[in-house]
Amino acid sequence: MHNSLVQDRADLSRRKPSSLRPGVTLADVARAAGVDQSTVSRVLRNDHGARTTEATRSRIHDEASRLGYVANAAARSLAMRRTSTLGILIPSSLNLVIVDVIRGAQDAARELGYVLMVADASELGRASDAVRSLVLEGRVDGLLIASGTITDEVTDDLLDGFGNCVILNRRIGGRAPSVIEDDDLGMFIATRELIEHGHETIACLAGPIDIDTSRRRVAGYRRAMKAAGLKVGKGSVVHRPFDEAGGFSGTTELLSGPNRPSAIASASLAAAIGGLAAARGMNVGVPDELSFTAFHDAPIANYLSPPLTTVAMPLGQLGRQAVLMLHRRLTGVSGPTHVTVQDPAPRLIRRESVARLAKPRLGEPKSAAVLGHPKLLRPTTPEATPAI
Hints:
The chain is an alpha/beta fold.
């Protein structure tokens, strides 16, 4: 048995990948694997149309690894008239949640043999000019657009002249394929958390009114309020940009109005951060006088004062599914053109920004407990709970 173990280890040692050797060719791998060169080429570039068995694919990959084969990207690009590069246009590299989208897209791109190039629309001038630059200069085979400033006209032009683009987390008019998250459900969960803590005058810190992402999130807020038999008061929904400045401005308006809410459900994490700053500047304590929840999660939510209750969305899957859809378009494989990512489901992460609203004393009008500075109970220990 000892001799057998030694032999097994020797066999494994011989199969370890050697150092990368650019001089190794497809023909070398084909000879070692006992197949023709075209089969090796198709397998190594993840061409799912290649009619090979799993055993053959495995053998080709093993031999390529053993020989240290490195694909000649320049030669392949010339032969196929492709760059094997995908682009993703993001609104800003400072965006708090875009990193998870990029990570999911990058993982999927790598698995399919692409390089992912990230373009920051805020650094490239107008988003439409950035898109045309990436496409017309032939830098990418396909483009993922995660910028909210792209118009229907630009995407229609792209489809007519280029064809290989997918819109992330936005569904606009025209014919552009898209992948979105379940904005309605995520915002429903963020609002329901406040309702379950006894709040009734709940405001919605919404995004721009002309973006469908914002409209879906407001719909989720309204759905939660309606399900609880609560009315959405006049001025309870304020539309601002999704960023920190928008949240600061919107929260200031809500807290300065005649019907100050006891809680705010924010349609973005960045806006909630701005909202917390606005409350602090107005000497409104969170959560003692104002509870807060936010759509989207990021590590920074743990380090805010107080730590912010959020709804984590499947951003990695959003990026991944967008790349898979784009790959299908590039390879001519049929599939859905509009996808809503629902797995994993949105997940509520309880921290310390929500307090339970105290019930009014006997004989006190119900509204007295929610106007002005209500007396609230401190939240329980932070915990993460799955959404239902």
